[in-house]
Amino acid sequence: MADPRPTKLIVDCSTGERTVVELTDEEIAEREAMAAAAEAERVAEEEAAAALQALKDSAKAKLIAGEALTAEEADVLVL
Amino acid sequence: MVHLETESLAGTQASVIFNPISADYDDLLLIVNAKSSRTNSPRDNLMMTFNGVGGTSYGNQWLEGTGSAAYSSAQANTSSIQVTWALSADFGSTTAGIYGSTKIYITSYRNSLNKSIISDQTAIRNSTDSHSAIQGSLASITAPITSISLSPENGSFLIYSSFSLYGIKKGSDGVTTVS
Questions:
Q1: Residue B99 and residue B102: Cα distance in Å, rounded?
Q2: What is the pLDDT of residues B44-93, one digit of tens each?
């Protein structure tokens, strides 16, 4: 059986009446696009955070070992 | 401050819309305690529009605290106001029964100027993880606000999410307090 179509709840502040209405195809498409964009943003943020942490770890290891840092590694240590 | 409506969801809803809104007040206050069905993150954004207007009518700037770091960020020309980290989410390690908390103040909602909105919000995950933000938003809408639409950025609002709307009226003589 197909999942039920998502609904929206409309609250009429003049009467207190509540009405539940199924979303249109256009509204569902908008929701899916918004969620896809949010997921892409989340993945990009996670990748950026992981890359930054890797640079910091590498810079720290080289400092301890007395090795030369790359410019990128130096940037994460010096503002 | 006058209580206008409270809705506590009896089931899942993709959106909650207050429409129409009384024109008897000066400002509006919206209190949201809600959780989204998002499963790939412990928190979610609350998306808000007025009068069914989308396009590029909105912008916002916010300060965000994660408990271990602080950030600031901004958006412009968006199709809705992103109330950042206003919602807890149905993520695996989110404590059951925990909902995000948000207070949204809409100033001069009936005038013919663009509308300013201030909000503070917290998306709680568990006893060791929550993100909070304070935010200023602008709606480039000069018409009086007659409806407010709320939806999570991902998925739907879960059962028991609640939404309360209040009207605030100022005095007309600088002395009288209007309740």
A1: 10
A2: 999 999 999 999 999 999 999 988 889 899 999 999 999 999 999 999 87
Strands B129-139 and B2-8: unpaired
CB proximity A35 to B under 8 Å: yes
| Three-class DSSP category at A44 | helix
DSSP state of B13: B
Minimal Cβ distance to A42: which of B16, B20, B40: B40
ipTM confidence: 0.90
Alpha helix segments (H runs only) across chain B: none
How many domains does chain A contain in total? 1
Does A12 sit within 8 Å of B14, measured CB to CB? no
From the candidates A3, A5, A8, which should be mutated to test the interface with B, based on the most B CB atoms within 10 A? A8
Neighboring chain A residues of B20 at a CB cutoff of 8 Å: 12-14
Domains of chain B: 2-168 (2.60.120)
Its domain, for residue A62, covers: 7-75
In three-state secondary structure terms, A72 is: helix
What are the Cα distances from residue B91, in Å, to A61, B39, B88? 35, 5, 8
The answer to the question of residue A20 being in a domain is yes
Cβ atoms of residues B133 and B66 within 8 Å: no
Helix (H), strand (E) at residue B29: strand B27-36
Q: How close is the nearest chain B Cα to the Cα of A59, in Å?
A: 21
pTM for this prediction: 0.87
State the nearest Cα–Cα gap between A69 and chain B, in angstroms.
26
